[in-house]
Write a structure and sequence with these properties.
133 residues, mainly alpha, Arc Repressor Mutant, subunit A, 0% strand, single chain
């Protein structure tokens, strides 16, 4: 495929939202190569943004599959289900970290004053004396 096609771009993104990754999509003979898709992303910021949103949809699909696997888990398939679940959790977190990634909670107290600290005053005094005490 030569030039960018919004019609093809839309199909790629629709397939991603339905659960296919770029590698799988680009193996289809009717789709552009991965190199072409990545070139399009570099050349077309709107397409890059469209793919980013589609990747989030793909992460939602991964999360959906996690639920399906968990529902079908039995004593006999627990180990293989555990492996599948871990892989899908990792993929979802990487594809959409804000939504499916680990949440980091920050609890901090910041105090802002207009007065210089003692360390700053000592540093400035030392600088005025060119490093001499």
């Amino acid at each position: 495929m030569r030039g960018f096609s919004q019609e093809i771009a839309d199909k790629i993104c629709e397939r991603m939202i339905e659960g296919e990754d770029i590698v799988t999509i680009c193996k289809d003979k009717d789709m552009p190569s991965r190199a072409t898709v990545y070139r399009w992303m570099a050349e077309q910021p709107a397409f890059e943004a469209q793919c980013a949103r589609a990747r989030e949809g793909l992460a939602d699909h991964d999360a959906h599959m996690i639920g399906r696997i968990a529902e079908s888990c039995t004593e006999s398939n627990a180990q293989s289900s555990r492996v599948k679940l871990a892989a899908l959790q990792w993929l979802a977190a990487k594809r959409s970290p804000k939504r499916w990634g680990d949440k980091i909670e920050v609890d901090a107290k910041v105090e802002v004053t207009n007065a210089p600290t003692e360390n700053l005053m000592a540093f400035l005094a030392m600088a005025e004396n060119n490093g001499k005490k």
